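Closing statement on the adenosine-5'-diphosphate sub-project.
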Amino acid sequence: MTNKQKKTLWRIIAAALLLVWAMFGPTLWLPAGLPFVSVGRTAADGTAAFALALWVRFLIPYLVIGWDVLWRAVRNIAHGQVFDENFLMAIATVGALWIGEYAEAVFVMLFYQVGELFQSYAVGKSRQSIAELMEIRPDYANVERDGAVEQVDPDEVEVGETILIKAGERVPLDGVVLEGRSDLDTAALTGESLPREVQSGDDVISGCVNLTGLLKVRVTRAFEESTVSKILDLVENAGSKKAKAENFITKFARYYTPAVVFAAVALAVLPPLIGAMTWSESLHRALIFLVISCPCALVISVPLSFFGGIGGASKAGVLVKGGAYLEVLARTQIVVFDKTGTLTKGVFNVTAIHPETCGEDRLLELAALAESWSQHPIARSLREAYGKDIDSGRVSEVEERSGRGVRAVVDGTEIFVGNDKLMDDIGVSWHPCHRVGTTVHVASEGEYLGHIVISDEVKEDAAQAVADLKTLGVAKTVMLTGDAKAVGEAVAAQLGLDEVHTQLLPADKVERVEALLEQKTGKGCLAFVGDGINDAPVLSRADIGIAMGGLGSDAAIEAADVVLMDDKPSKIAVAIRIAKKTLVIVRQNIVFALGVKALVLVLGALGEANMWEAVFADVGVSVIAILNAMRAMKGAGQP
Ligand code: ADP
Ligand code: MG
């Protein structure tokens, strides 16, 4: 509990005790000469002094518990914001005091404060999980400069500098391990509880905790571009993408409060005017109506449910950029996957090297050099297979042709590395390969040099991911790939996908997704899942873009609406499940709160509900709705 919450709690206890005293307390011990507080003497007194004394006894607990509400109501009126919760509570309770319902006035305030306390506690709880994520922010970096180690702010370190990360420290910047071996705790980023082992040559991402060994790391990205900064940005902005339901509530409150205030005025004024009621009866009824009308339950619990859903998802390693995307996710009907890096690991093994003229080593060297600047998984795998250090001075005029391959000048000779399409583009005749796998052709200035066959593995949880989506009621799963027909179809069959389209250029993928968007029915939505390498246009074209943002691939975090921190496709089903659960909760809360409210409001207007029922309707509904909202957060990750 925060200090403020503790203070409120003490005020509630104090006011409750004072109220008990006011209602039942003896007066004997009070100085007899003080008429204000000597209520108990004889009720038969019936004097003005007696009434005043009673009034003061209740006024004390009332002010203890309600002074801040009254103060806020007055201040808001001064600012021209008349119709808010504070205003409703203030006029309802002041009115109650006025017509002699002393105990009720104090009770209404007391319960209102209990509700407020509960709400602030609940909001704090769900903020906490987001805050846990926030703790990934590193405080410093140990950077090696001129032979000495200095401790500096992470944003002062430049790309290419060497940093030291001791056991127990947080990785401050993204980089590549130069020396050392250690286990990294990635739980804060991915929700993955098993530590990840790294050694020299491996990438490390900021935000992880170095558990065991000393690591020497060469920084590859500046702090503003590091994984940690991107995630923090994303989480901080998560609230700005409001769900439709949230916007509805804000608008609703804007019209609702003045509407009920006018209704209450009408209830107070009209019946006595037509002679149907006395002024005090009608006033009483109007005040009850006001107490009931407070829309807190709705106003609080709907955003809290979305917040809970986002928090629950982030615990499971899925970052959702706002409540709006939970709404879309819950309606997912078609899921379209990219292949490389999304369903497959994107780590290719070289399975064959078939040169035409030069030696195998030479062919691989040319390919690796030409690919030296590419971030494509194929490029990385070729460099890995080559194994030796690449002298980037030998490479110039690099040009990526997405969905096809690369062109570069290596040692002064123009080299093309890529697929059939690229060879056709440059008019080089190529040989198909009998080996199963992705064929990477290499050509130089119109001459075919040969090809390298590489093969990728599907991710361990890919088949499970597809199966889970089916159980969740996703109507269609589709794979789009730029890879060869044989490879794409083999993967699709292995994973049980409904549809597969191969040999697509990035622009073809957009076209395919547009065609698939036509196939949706009703309110169904299409999700595209990609690794962000040349599929950013599709990510934004889909109803919802899901990116593999975590380890390895250069974060497509920006283009996507949802980011899977650990690159596991099975987390899509987890996210959809959380989204569905959150929306069920939101709907329950809206129906429940509005239903109870409407019922008690009608009863109140008809004079069938008293102040106590009004208080229960308000506080009770809020508490139940808040408890329900907190379910969105808990255990949402489990199937
Ligand atoms: P996917 O749709 O499976 O993610 P991409 O669209 O990234 O595949 O690439 C499609 C195809 O283009 C690859 O299978 C490969 O043949 C070729 N290609 C793309 N980039 C490169 C590269 N840097 N080096 C070699 N081939 C490439
Ligand atoms: Mg791709």
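The two ends are 31 Å apart (CA to CA). With this model delivered, the sub-project is considered complete and its resources will be redirected to Aim 3.
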